[in-house]
Amino acid sequence: MDYFINIFEYTGVSSNILEKLITSAVMFIILFLLKHIACKVVKKRIKEVKKAYIWRRSTSYIYTFLIIILLGRIWIKGIDSLATFLGLTSAGLAIAMKDTVTDVMGWLFIMWNKPFVLGDRIQLKDITGDVIRIGFFKFSVVEVGEWVDGEQSTGRIVHIPNNLAIRETLTNYHTGFNYIWNEIPMLITFESDWKKAKKMLLKIALARAEHLTKDAERQIIKAARQYMIFFNVLTPTVYTSIQESGVCLTMRYIVKPRMRRITEHQICEDIISDFAKHSDIDFAYPTTRFYHKK
């Protein structure tokens, strides 16, 4: 060590700076090796992609946090207390980097309160998507909806500042109850046998969605312990209403968010096929009728 100190003194670099440089280098090497070993262990022992991703990201966050803290302790003179260092650093950042700080606070809020986790489908302001990444400053979603019907993926990745998770209303499709309600309205003519049509629709709904009821009931019981979620009826049903052009039969059933479009597609095909077999049931559409007095 004395040999290197003499060399740096010869070049004009003080021994104090040299010690800090060497300490910083050693710190970087040790932390890098620890991070590398941790990632290797995660890759070897955790085979599930989602869990492995979470562990890798957590390791990176811890690595970055330790580097910031330890470098501050090494290079900022006169700060012996970690609490003092963190306080001064936070105050300075809050003034100079307001948006960045609020994004970090948003990240802490997401990590602690878990308004959503990786894989959840959420809606924030006018953006709906599936969460694929949660970072220090932003989280990313695969967008669904927009010009694509049935809330299917558009293929675009949207990066959203973390602070919006605190400031804006956030809707989660999965937290608490992993199902959503979907409705399919079918309009038939006034002359149709609406009672028969209603029975047919209910039969189709039960065939396509009744098997989800048991799992949904179990989730309701579990969710009720944490959220005020209560439903009296979870089985598919059909409601009747009168519209200008005919009788509207609305099928209502539960479905997993990502299965909404495919189940609606299957149900609509079943309805079209079954209605075609009955001459006394016709789809309605806007029409104009003329009456002539004799």
Structure, described:
This protein has a 5-stranded antiparallel β-sheet. The chain has 3 domains: 2-96, no CATH class; 121-172, SH3 type barrels (Roll), CATH 2.30.30; 180-275, Alpha-Beta Plaits. The N and C termini lie far apart (118 Å). The chain contains 9 helices and 8 strands. The chain is of the alpha+beta class and 294 residues long. It is 49% helix and 19% strand. A hairpin with a 2-residue loop joins strand 1 and strand 2 (127-134).
Per-chain topology:
Blueprint (H helix, E strand, L loop, with lengths): L1 H9 L4 H31 L3 H27 L6 H15 L1 H16 L7 E4 L2 E8 L3 E7 L8 E9 L2 H4 L2 E3 L7 E9 L5 H16 L3 H11 L13 E6 L4 E9 L4 H16 L19
Antiparallel strand pairs: 1-2, 1-5, 2-3, 3-4, 6-8, 7-8
Helix pairs in contact: 2-3, 4-5, 7-9
Features:
single chain, 294 residues, three-stranded antiparallel β-sheet, alpha+beta, 3 domains, 9 helices, Alpha-Beta Plaits
Mean pLDDT: 77
- CATH topology assignment of the largest domain: Alpha-Beta Plaits
Major β-sheet annotation: 5 strands, antiparallel
Roughly how many Å is the radius of gyration?
30 Å
- Total domains: 3
Number of strands: 8
List unreliable stretches of 5+ residues. none
Query: What is the helix/strand order?
Result: HHHHHEEEEHEEHHEEH
CATH architecture of the largest domain: 2-Layer Sandwich
Quaternary organization: single chain
Global outline? elongated
| Beta strand % | 15-25%
Helix content: 40-55%
Q: Please, how many helices?
A: 9
The top-level CATH class of the largest domain is Alpha Beta
How far apart the termini lie comes to 118 Å
